[in-house]
């Protein structure tokens, strides 16, 4: 079965977020017919939602996988659950959040999955690490990642060491 290039956003702001992301990368690499090919630096960012929560640690991982999109989503949700994910409130604190940003050149709109991720272009904590590992990437609509990254050139996210 042919493999697809997929980009996964990782985020955590509870229970040692750096360790949560490191564990998630190992879990991604252990998925069937899947290999992690690149991982961005880890970045500290302010929460997108309620501000009464800790800062997030975010990264993007590139994988090559033969898993179908919904099967991959099931695996990602299982990894989140294994690492203690509880959904308390929208955009709230969490031990781990894994989102499929891009799955090859596919455009998917279903009840469970939207690819490309619906708001990735407006999220500094997604675009900066994605650009770090895939600067020549082109989105399924033909837009070049370079154009999206330009609006975040003077980003204010701190890079976390030891990743």
TrEMBL record:
- Its EC number is 2.7.6.3
Question: Carries keyword Cell membrane?
Answer: no
Top EC category: transferase
What Gene3D superfamilies does the record point to?
7,8-Dihydro-6-hydroxymethylpterin-pyrophosphokinase HPPK
| Keywords per UniProt | ATP-binding, Folate biosynthesis, Kinase, Nucleotide-binding, Transferase
Provide the 7,8-dihydro-6-hydroxymethylpterin-pyrophosphokinase domain boundaries: 90-101
- Give the superkingdom in one word: Bacteria
Gene Ontology molecular function terms on file:
2-amino-4-hydroxy-6-hydroxymethyldihydropteridine diphosphokinase activity
Function of this protein?
Answer: Catalyzes the transfer of pyrophosphate from adenosine triphosphate (ATP) to 6-hydroxymethyl-7,8-dihydropterin, an enzymatic step in folate biosynthesis pathway.
Say which family it is in.
Belongs to the HPPK family.
Q: Mind telling me what this protein is named?
A: 2-amino-4-hydroxy-6-hydroxymethyldihydropteridine pyrophosphokinase
The organism is Testudinibacter aquarius
């Amino acid at each position: 079965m042919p493999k697809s290039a997929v980009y996964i956003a990782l985020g955590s702001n509870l229970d040692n977020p750096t360790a949560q992301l490191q564990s998630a990368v190992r879990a991604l690499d252990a998925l069937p017919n899947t290999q992690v090919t690149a991982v961005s630096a880890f970045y500290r960012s302010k929460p997108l939602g309620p501000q009464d929560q800790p800062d997030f640690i975010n990264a993007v991982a590139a994988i090559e996988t033969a898993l179908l999109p919904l099967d991959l989503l099931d695996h990602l949700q299982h990894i989140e659950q294994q690492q203690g994910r509880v959904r308390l409130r929208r955009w709230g604190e969490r031990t781990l959040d894994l989102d499929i940003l891009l799955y090859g050149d596919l455009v998917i709109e279903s009840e469970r999955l939207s690819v490309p991720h619906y708001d990735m272009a407006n999220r500094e904590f997604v675009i900066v690490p994605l650009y770090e590992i895939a600067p020549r990437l082109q989105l399924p609509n033909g837009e070049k990642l370079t154009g999206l990254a330009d609006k975040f050139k003077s980003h204010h996210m701190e890079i976390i060491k030891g990743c």
